[in-house]
Structure formats: structure tokens, C-alpha cells
Amino acid sequence: MKAFMDDNFVLNNQTAERLYHEYAKDLPIIDYHCHLSPQEIYENVQFENITKVWLYGDHYKWRAMRANGIEEKYVTGDASDYDKFLAWAQTVPQLIGNPLYHWTHLELKRYFGVEEPLNESTAPMIWEKVNKLLTSGEWNVRDFIVKSKVEVVCTTDDPTDSLEYHQKIADDPTFDVKVLPSYRPDKGLEINQDGFQAWVKKLAEAAEVSITQFQDFLQALQKRIDFFHENGGRVSDHALNTVVYEGATEEDVAAIFAKALKGEKVSSQEEKQYKSYLLTFLGKAYHEKGWVMQYHMNAHRNNNTRMFKELGPDTGYDSMNDDLLAQPLVRLLDSLEQSNALPKTILYSLNPRDNVTIATITGSFQGGGTPGKIQFGTAWWFNDTRLGMIDQMETLADIGVFSRFVGMLTDSRSFLSYTRHEYFRRIMCNLVGEWVENGEYPNDEATLAEIVKNISYYNAKEYFDF
């Protein structure tokens, strides 16, 4: 029997052990998609206790606590931070088989030297030990980043954002990590959502453009792309909960936009035309800049109306969607490819049913001399589990070129989440090791080392060219 989470945790063969410890373990991290706060990075925030750094904003943990019968008071309510931590400590032992169990203990071990499993008995001791370290000045926000060997952090930013803190970080000679913005124009695509008109007004102010018609709107979006680029932005991101494509002329879409600008709701067909045209416009703009475009697809958000009204979005009430995406996604990508304007693109679906579909679609748009130009993105959100990662990687290997995979990201709001890269690297090395030890691939040390190093770090470094 192995010891609990020892040095060879999830490394189940000798080849895997060698590949991880000798080649993958100590490589830097490029975190090309996350939800960290650039303001907190600039201010180098010190957290007064583990609850603030660990449980605030972490909807993964909130879902688990609710499922364990914890009252909302101890999840997002007004209970003390200590009582919330105890509620999480009560929940953790119940999470056998859940990656939260592994993430929790990797974070405690790697950052705070805690070897004991977290439970109700050990909670008081762990609370005291971790909080002492957090308030020592040795574990402020930047310490988590630097000591995790992070080279690049890509935050998620609205086109109207000032990027004030990205600029301040870039001007700080004491901090070498690149903290770069990612262009996330979702609010500009959701033409039927409440607040669209207010967002357009905010965009006009940010771009210093008067928006009275659709061409003005496109000009404002382009100006903000230019601004992001000037501030190091090289990545865009889109939450396409439902993928749509419907052809339309610019005149058609201009009329749809004018209707929405007056506060009128547009039809479902008009919304599809608007989104299709705008996504094509944006894709061409990204291509022109040499950016990487990311599509996060098939999420079903804000399922619980009562709790959405009480707590708002991103509080643990989302799930997988099951819309069909093959036809609209292919048409959307092809609308860009027809004019040779398809940028490097990463495709993620929240529904693992789509894995084979996405893997085959990527193969239809590769080329131009760019290795892995169209990427089947890493297992995302509810798929960010051991089995989910294996499924994604095996599907990619079955159908595509696994060795060109750009690997892992955190997609996290927590500064402790960089251990997810360790988790991924261990699982990836174990998978490669299984192929070798099953006689499915030669035990060629140089080639194997290159593959695991590239997927862990070098592919992303080359692909994004930050």
C-alpha cells in the first residue's frame, strides 16, 4: 500500500515516476487563463487567515459543502471565517475520489508544510499553523506566484477595463512575472441581456468613441483590442454557452444592433445573426494581431433562480449544457478560414460528450505551419478531474497530435491553485508511462522527455509567444 499522497502520488509505474521527477516537476508555469485579481497582485495582498485565501469565491468548495449538508450561513453567509473553515474541514473527509480532496492536501503540503489530512480533529491545529504563515509576510499574493515558478498570468478582463493594475505591475521592477490581460467581450455579444445598452455606453467611454450605429460599435471594440495589445494582451476568451452560426450581411446586423440600442428585444434568429457576425469580426481582429482565441462552450449557467437572485452569478449553481455544437462551430470557424483569417484557437467544452467532436473538428482547420494551431483545450471546470483529464488526453491522442498539446491552466480565482499544474503533470506523466510500459510506445528517453516537457511548459511558451 502506498503512503497517502507520497512523492509518487498518482504515478503508478516506474516510467511515470522517472518522467515526472526528472523532467516535468520543476518546470515553470504559464497560466494562460485564470480569474485572479490584478489589483490583488499589484497590492501584494496579505490574507489574514486561510478562509479568505481558500474559501472566498471558490464555488467548487461551496458546491461540495452544500452537498454535504452545510448551511449556507457557513458557505457564503455571515458565519465567522473560523466557523467556515471548520465547515470545510467537516466536508473534506467526505470527498473520497473527488479532486477537491487532492487539491486541498496538495495546497496544504506544498505551501504550508501541512502533512496531516484535514478533518474536524486536525482543523484547529492547521488553522493556527497556516494563519501564522499567512501573516508572517512570507506568503503574500506574489509569494504564491513566484514560489510556484509562474512566468505568465493571464487574467480575464472586460473590454471596458482600464487595465490600470496590469500597467502598474508592468512598471514594477521588483516583480518579474508577466500579468497580462485577456479580452473577454461577452457582454457585447449578449445583445438581449439586461444591461446591454449600459455596457455599450461604458464601452464608448472607454474607447472615446460616440456609439450611435453598428460601425461605431465595431470601431470601439477594435480600439479596445488595440489597447489590450499595447498592454501585453495576446489572448481573447469567449463564453459561448450555446454555439450558434447564422449568416447575415453587415446591413442586417446594423439594423439588429439599432433595435437593441433602443432597448428593444431582438428575435432568436436576429440574435444568432448578430453573434455570428460579431464573432467573425472579432476573430479576424485577433488574427490580425497574432492573438490566440479561446472558446469555452456548453455551460448551463445560473440554474437556481432563487439562489441567483440571492447570491448572483459564479456562486456554484452552474452545470454542463448539452446543446449540439458541431455544425455551428464548424461554420463559425470556416467563416474565418474562408478569408484565411482564422487565428490560433483553443476549444473547450464543458460536456465531455463533445470531446471526440472537438478533436475531429480541430483537424479540419490545422495548417499554415503552426504546430497545433487549433487546440483541443484541457479538461475544463467539471471535467478538471483525474478521469476528466485522462479522457481529454486519450481522445486527443487517439485522433490528433498529443505531443503538441499546450497543457494545463488554472481557470481559478485562488492564488493557491497552482498545484493543479502539478496534479495535471503527474496524471499526464502516468498516462505516457502506461503507454510505454504496455509496449505501445518505445522507451526512448530523449523523445519521452521532450514530450512531457513540451506539454508541461514549452508548447504553451511557443504557442502564445507572450
What does the model show?
It is built from 20 helices and 10 strands. It is an alpha/beta fold. Helix 1 crosses helix 20 (445-464), helix 14 crosses helix 16 and helix 18 packs across helix 19. The model has no long low-confidence stretch (mean pLDDT 97).
Whole-number mean pLDDT:
97
The CATH class of the domain at 181-405 is: Alpha Beta
As a whole number of angstroms, the C-alpha radius of gyration is 23 Å
- What is the helix/strand order? HEHHHHHHHEHEEHHHEHHEEHEHEHEHHH
Strands of the largest sheet, in order across it? 4-5-6-9-10
Structural class: alpha/beta
Count of distinct strands: 10
| Named CATH topology of the domain at 181-405 | TIM Barrel
Q: Care to give the gist of this entry?
A:
With 466 residues, the chain is of the alpha/beta class. Helices cover 49% and strands 8% of the residues. The radius of gyration is 23 Å and the shape is globular.
Topology:
Elements: H1 14-24, E1 29-31, H2 38-43, H3 50-54, H4 59-67, H5 81-91, H6 99-112, H7 123-134, H8 141-147, E2 150-154, H9 164-170, E3 178-180, E4 182-183, H10 186-189, H11 196-207, H12 214-230, E5 235-240, H13 250-261, H14 268-289, E6 292-297, E7 299-300, H15 305-311, E8 319-320, H16 326-337, E9 344-349, H17 355-363, E10 374-376, H18 386-399, H19 419-437, H20 445-464
Parallel strand pairs: 1-2, 2-3, 4-5, 5-6, 6-9, 9-10
Antiparallel strand pairs: 7-8
Helix pairs in contact: 1-19, 1-20, 11-12, 12-14, 13-14, 14-16, 17-18, 18-19
